[in-house]
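job 3f2a | input accepted
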Amino acid sequence: MKRLLIVTTVPATLSAFLLPFARHFREQGWQVDAMTRGGAVRPEVAMAFDHVWPVDWSRSPLSPQNLVRTPRVVRQIVRRERYDLIHVHTAVAGFVTRYALRSVRGRDGPKVIYTAHGFNFGQGNPFHKNVAFLGLEKLAGRWTDYQVVINRQDEAAARRHRIVPPDRVCYMPGIGLDLGFYKAESVTASAVERVRLDLGLASADQLLLVVAELIPRKRHADALRAFARLVGRNAHMALAGEGPLLEPLRQLAAELNIHDRVHFLGFRRDIPALMCASSALVLPSCAEGLPRSVMEAQSLEVPVIGTDIRGVRDLLADGRGLMFKVGDVGGLAHAMAWVLRHPGEARAMAQRGRAQIATYDLRRVIALHDELYAKAL
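job 3f2a | predicted structure (377 res):
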């Protein structure tokens, strides 16, 4: 029996992205375990994996905890369980796990694969931060058998900086999207109407939607400020997601006098219906790997407005969406107004997005993992 350990910094990454991979490889007869930050995990995570190991990571990769105590725990578990393959995701877990296993991997030890969900360097950071982040990636690259990247800009950077040998860089189109679930034909008119009724929308009201965790890098405040500039329109905005910025964003909506047209929805399980009820998805983020919400909207033929950054650019280039510069509130407001004024043209744009989304099909990405794992082992 082959043994696979999937490692992430927080449990939410497992539940949001990696359950299909765990189920697939268990169906192939593998033992598939997970390792993530300690605490309660969702029932679907506990069911998808054979075992979930709790560990303590600090948010800073170079904290004493991450360099001494946590690596010792990681090494003990890996040695005892005798994994064939370790696949790590996200920055903190990615660095600490590879550091912990630097003397364990090798001819007789497990193979180590790291998927970067967006490198932390090259994102408009100050020079010294980019140097530091790149240095950490190159250091950890020494302890990595294969480097997976999920957008073309990161692929070019990994090869240019030789984070691992070029033949060990593997591009994959994200971590996969279930195109059967995110399909416009599967969303009923009654489900869309139920969303609109729940939000108190009149038949003439238009809805702009943001689906993102309420954290600083998603830049929800830009979306609220741009929305406040729309005048003379029956428009509402909905923010689906949880996070520490909920109350500051509520306060900002009140200060902008748009609180009666902004809806904070929290965690939702009806994202397809929410998107189909919307005139556009908006993503004002300053940093992404390959944004899942944009792929979901495109699969549902919903127009997308996003920042001109890596990952987003992969999805929206060539007329498949509207892009604006990070922090350009005026540009975002203009894009919002255009979508609301030109629904027919916006729908044609969304259809162009839908035409290329098959590239990101979950089944294809799982097959690519099959190939990579076979190669690594």
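job 3f2a | The chain has a mean pLDDT of 93.
job 3f2a | closed
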